[in-house]
Design goal:
Arc Repressor Mutant, subunit A; 2 strands
Length: 93
């Protein structure tokens, strides 16, 4: 069962820009399952405040695009094209 993720919007000092969110998305896709949260933040091509990065990670987890395993590594899990392909297969119903 998936754990509920609650984003505390009252204490957010900065909201990330769209290009920043997309940059983090692309980086996570490229390095799927390689990094834990802190190391991922340190390895990004563009530097940002850690709190802003945490807001992006919380959003990506809430929207079902990433997952965090037992070791704390972040992986990309959002593959809509693949899901459509499998939904179209009648023998999987």
């Amino acid at each position: 069962m998936q754990e509920a993720i609650i984003i505390d919007t009252e204490n957010i000092l900065r909201y990330p820009r769209l290009d920043t969110v997309l940059m983090v998305e692309e980086f996570v896709k490229k390095h799927d399952g390689e990094f834990k949260k802190r190391k991922l933040w340190e390895s990004l091509p563009k530097k940002m405040m850690y709190q802003t990065f945490c807001v992006i990670i919380d959003y990506l987890a809430y929207s079902g695009k990433i997952s965090i395993d037992k070791e704390g590594k972040i992986g990309w899990i959002y593959y809509p094209e693949l899901a459509r392909k499998y939904r179209a297969l009648t023998d999987l119903r």
